[in-house]
From TrEMBL:
Residues 1-26 form the signal peptide. Its main location: other. It is found in: Cell envelope. InterPro entries: Bact_Solute-Bind_Prot2, Peripla_BP_I, SBP_2_dom. One of its GO terms (cellular component) is outer membrane-bounded periplasmic space. PANTHER family: ABC TRANSPORTER PERIPLASMIC-BINDING PROTEIN YPHF, D-XYLOSE-BINDING PERIPLASMIC PROTEIN. SUPFAM superfamilies: Periplasmic binding protein-like I (SSF53822). It comes from Amycolatopsis coloradensis. This is Sugar ABC transporter substrate-binding protein.
Length: 328
């Protein structure tokens, strides 16, 4: 065997050994301008959050806090707007589409009123995430996912809680006419309660009248021993109404604020259904950032649930400080 041939064998053996030790090569990053990299928008993401909240509503202030905090952490420009009128809310969506925002977060208390606007956003290539209300219409309108609590399940939990407390007749107070989520809450409460349930319509924008209507209901029917309000501000009115007529009815409510925390501690409110609405602001901004940067879609075709979580005297001391700082 020649000296030159022996040297060639040694080199070949070394190359085989080297390839066995190094294992498979890592995937190389695509060259700039190649593949999906060219499809990614440049610059900061701009997200419009448009809710059906009314001015001064403590619940929606917490949603706003969550969205804006996610924006600060992720470098996303968040613009929050709200209008309790479905037609005006749809116009806010249309304006955001015209401004070519990079993502849209919308609550759908009245899905039919928003249908065309949301579908137009999707057709324009703007990713949409729905929050809080309208879960059953979300996918059909083209949204990536829905973030919120299932209103029927939450209502059932509230009804079960009153049943465990031994209550026999329940009044469910609806404060927004046409809000599908509130109807689902009361229907769910009826299922969980398995007893006598009636509903009462009030107007959240007229708190004095709301209190008067609740007072009239419990005064007229002394057998009402449970009142379920669907908003923390209405809960305070229900407590005042019940005290004014000396009723023995107990109040449970949806949502938390500092007044409800104090009322749970004093025993004026027996529980609150907390849907953790801070997450309804925070998570969609995070999801839209992941979608823009990495084509991630969360939920697997199912809603991302943020509740319900029942808060009562056993847990209120833990949750209270977060309510005071505006994150629960």
């Amino acid at each position: 065997m020649s000296h030159r041939f022996k040297a060639a064998l040694v080199v070949a053996a070394g190359l085989v050994l080297l390839s066995a030790c190094t294992g498979p090569k890592a995937e190389e990053k695509p060259a700039e301008g190649a593949g999906p990299e060219t499809a990614r928008p440049s610059g900061p993401l701009r997200v419009a959050v448009i809710s059906h909240g009314t001015a001064g509503d403590a619940f929606w202030n917490v949603v706003k806090n969550g969205a804006e905090e996610a924006g600060r952490q992720l470098g996303v420009q968040v613009e929050y707007n709200s209008d309790g009128d479905p037609g005006n809310q749809a116009k806010l969506v249309d304006n955001a589409v015209a401004q070519q925002v990079g993502g849209l977060v919308v609550s759908m208390a009245n899905p039919e009123a928003l249908k065309t606007s949301i579908e137009n956003a999707v057709r324009a290539g703007i990713p949409v995430i729905t929050i809080n209300s309208g879960e059953d219409k979300s996918a059909g309108y083209g949204a990536l996912t829905h973030v919120g609590q299932n209103e029927t399940i939450a209502g059932e939990e509230a009804g079960k809680k009153f049943k465990q407390l031994g209550k026999k007749k329940l009044l469910c107070v609806v404060h927004e006419a046409g809000n599908v989520g509130q109807a689902q809450r009361c229907d769910g409460a009826g299922t969980g309660f398995s007893g006598d349930v009636r509903t009462l319509q009030v107007d959240i924008s007229n708190p004095t009248d709301a209190e008067s209507r609740i007072r009239g209901a419990v005064q007229t029917d002394s057998s009402l021993d449970a009142v379920l309000t669907l908003n923390s501000q209405v809960a305070a009115r229900a407590v005042s109404a019940i005290k004014a007529v000396g009723s023995a009815a107990q109040v449970g409510t949806f949502d938390l604020n500092t007044d409800v925390v104090g009322a749970i501690k004093s025993g004026d409110v027996v529980f609150a259904v907390d849907q953790q609405q801070y997450e309804q602001g925070y998570l969609p901004v995070q999801f839209l950032k992941l979608y823009r940067d990495n084509a991630n879609v969360v939920g697997g075709g199912k809603p991302v649930l943020t509740g319900p979580d029942l808060v009562d005297k056993s847990t209120v001391d833990t949750i209270g400080p977060y309510v005071r700082r505006g994150t629960r």
